[in-house]
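Ticket #4471: complex job returned nothing on first submit. Input attached below:
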Amino acid sequence: MRRTGATHAALLVLGRDLRLGMRRLSQIGQPIVFFAMVLTLFPLALSPEPALLRSIAPGVLWVAALLASLLALEFLFRSDLEDGTLEQLLLCGQPLALLLTAKVLAHWMLSGLPLVVVSPLLGMMLGMPVESLGTLMVSLVLGTLILSLLGAVGAALTVGARRGSVLMSLLLLPLAMPVLIFGARATDLAMQGESAEGGLWLLAALLILAVTLAPLAIAAAVRISLE
Amino acid sequence: MARFTWFHKLASPPHCYAIAGRCLPWLAWPALVLIVIGMYGGLLRAPADYQQGEAFRIIYIHAPSAWLSLLGYTTMAVAAAVGLIWRMKLAHALAAATAPVGASFALLCLITGSLWGRPMWGAYWAWDARLTTELILLFLYLGYMALRASFDDVGRADRASAVLALVGVINIPIIHFSVYWWNSLHQGSTVLRAGGPAMPASMLWPLLVSFAGFTCLFATIVAIRLRGEILMRERQASWWSSMDSRGAMADE
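Support reply: We reran it on our side without changes. The output follows.
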């Protein structure tokens, strides 16, 4: 029997999840469509006046990205719980926290990264100046990574619960507020032509904290959900 | 380790039930006396504030509620950690008993705060950093309680909500500071709260007394709820049928 190292096992999980994700393209598309639709609501609800839209653009983009990544978390563990994959990951003898981190990374590449890619287009539709789009993308890369890690804790806790997805939003939104504050603020500062470094560094610090602690909480939560 | 026997005894439901019952009068009576004295001193004896007039008197309820909403979350998180690490079921029962009490004090703090805000700021609600953090704290409590309520199995509810309580307690300082920075970036710090004049003794002593009184009230309610929680979890057991009406074991 060939013995597999922990890193190799994590890469296998990553590859498997990416492959599975590419076979369900419509599922990847849903959060992006949702993201675009939420953004369309604001000009319709408020007014199409460019000055107003430009001033609310960072906040609106960030709120929409937050909601879209919450929506995407729904798919993170559910099918793996149903077909028993999650149990196999638990039993396979490899460090569970590492395997789940690989899963979260794959999930981010399929749900967070597309949001980052389409965000400049939607930012321009809301009238954001081109120079600030880089900051928007960097802040969204950092922010959606944190949201995926933090969200995985909530998804793992609620995967077996009744009305899991509503409950998950209830648990995660208060915890996600610092990310929203720093991300939207950094984007806003960049739009006004000021330095956005402070907010981005704070987001990066939060990401480091999330990378170090969240995998342990995700693993603990998956163990509880599988009991 | 004979020193720790009291701790292990606490882990046994009948003992904990009996101890909580024995503590009740020692918590409830001081709570009543201290709150009455504190309210008398604060509402009738203390002089009106030279700036805020009579409205400042709400602090005698508002400040203790704010403190207890934080104490409640800390108690809950510590109990949850003890329950997860040492697999102590009673620690989970304590966390479950504390959460609604802490949430009620957070709500009371928000209500009294907005009643105070109306004459002071001219609005019931302002997006002040402290108000916002308190509101998020209430949301954290509600999420915790919702997660607990969504499981039928008590053991799973205990462990899942314990993980959430621990994630929340790491997040509370981050939320606190991020909201402060967010606020200070948007507008100047609220003048009314910054520094502030030192309190004269005639205003301070009723505040300290009502802090002590409300903390005793908090402990009383938690003890009562803990007893209820133990009874509910142990409804299949037989030990409670040998207990007299005051909660003492017949054989003790």
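Chain A has a mean pLDDT of 90. Closing as resolved unless it happens again.
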